[in-house]
Amino acid sequence: MLFFRYAVFTGIIASIAFGIVGTYVVVRRITYIAGAIAHCILGGIGFALYLQYKLQVPWITPMCGAIAAALFSALIIGIVSMHWKQREDAVISAMWAVGMALGVLFIALTPGYQSAMSYLFGDILMVSKADFYTVLALDVVIVTLCLLFYNKFLAVCFDNDFARIKGVHVEFYYLLLLCLTALTIVLLISVVGLIMVIALLTLPAAISGHFTQRLSKMMMLSVALSFVFTFSGLGLSYKWNVPSGAVIIIIAGGCYLLTAAGTAIHRKLRRAARKSV
Amino acid sequence: MPTNEVIRLDHVSFSYQAGLPVLQDVCLSIDDKDAVAIVGPNGGGKSTMFGLLLGLLKPDRGTVSVLGNRPELARERIGYMPQYSVFDYEFPVNVMDVVLMGRLHFNRFGRYSGADKKAAMAALDELGMADLARRPFFALSGGQRQRVLIARALAGEPEIMLLDEPTSNIDPGAQEQFYDVLKKLAGRMTLLVVSHDLGFVSDWLSGVICVNRTVHIHPVSALTGDVIRDMYGYKVNMVRHDHCCIHEHDHKCNHEHTNQGIIS
Questions:
Q1: Which of A158, A165, A267 to mutate to test the interface with B (most CBs of B within 10 A)?
Q2: CA dihedral B89, B94, B95, B96 (to 10 degrees)
Q3: Which CATH architecture fits B5-254?
Q4: Domain limits of chain A?
Q5: Which residue, A14, A46, A54, B217, could crosslink A103 as a Cys pair with Cβ 3.0–4.6 Å?
Q6: A263 touches chain B (CB under 8 A)
């Protein structure tokens, strides 16, 4: 049962980062950037596997490759989106596809049998002790920075120019936010895999957005929801013997649809009630 | 050079695209505590001028100085209210969150103190919005939002206030109230208001700057229909808000009510 304990701990601590960073990603509307970073990470994982097995460099683990690729792609995308706004989406799409292609290629070139499946679709039950400690360290870094710079991130996301006038180094905070997003995606990949990253990053925040009107409350609710989704998904997948990542995402997606429909109906009813008065 | 000059533009040119200057060889000087309306057609360079004063844009040629310094060094002392259209109105913030942003520069680590909250509340109170401090920003009406954005600028204790289209998106009734708010600010700080509505041309203004690639400065008293027609380059319809219609028969462009204000 040891593997299950690591899975549970990983889920608990990672949810905190998911909720906080996911909220920033949703309100700043950078989900497509998050998607590109996630796919670039496969390139990093593939390259690390290749180095590890072909060149026998044992310390280059897939986790190292993932973190390096995540930060590298976040910085490239960030710099492009600040200085070459007109071509931002083209560059992001290119990185999305090329990162993925590099990953597939390196994994194919790596001797011995390597499957990309666990990275693509995630397997929280495969989290090792070493992975767990890496996840814990990343989580501490992400949460500390997000809380420390809360007001600055809020100002930069809400009104970039005004924040700049008030002496906030806007470029620095934007790149920092993208790097924190990148690190969060690394955590997410170990939970749900890179294909489904976007869902667990954005759905809790999107659901919270239906119920709260302040960033801090949205974060707290998102953390709670990530928690609930990860655990109910993990439990059900264990019970039914199906992939945990997929179950987590289906629960999150279902809740999103329910709350979106509920909010729409609620609004309509309220409008009708106002009319009848 | 007068010693109380707070804004100076020296032969400033700016273009977003090479060969298409938005502002060309602009010279301008504004004194402390002046209240100036900036008018001109859309695309004439009004907001661009604010961008230059705030150091958000760099001039291609010429120099901009604010409070005797480069704009980047002086801009924390400027209160700025951007145009209505720059905001994402789904953003989860309440009124107090927004106003507190005006005090970011007092706190290097971005933590707000009790004094900051007090100052933000005072700014809201001044604009008659104190009781809405806990409301979500996007639940407000257009006029209320504009007031919150002015309160945000005011909370930073500015010496210069730049307001970009503060009367757009509010209903005509609220506009009159709005002029009262601006009138209160005039005299306390240097005030620059972009508008395409000449309802501003009131007694509390010290001048009107017409921006249409080049800049013309007019004292308020000299602003007649002919001058306005010259600066826009074509016939415009205008409504004078001071309603002194004594010479109506010989000032035929003053009372054509087909269009509201000066709208290009």
A1: A165
A2: -140
A3: 3-Layer(aba) Sandwich (3.40)
A4: 2-194
A5: A46
A6: no
